[in-house]
Amino acid sequence: MNRSGLLRVALLYFLVIALALMIVVNRHHSRQLFAELQKLEKERDELSADLKPLEIGTKHLVKSGTRGNPF
Question: How much is the pTM?
Answer without folding.
Answer: 0.62
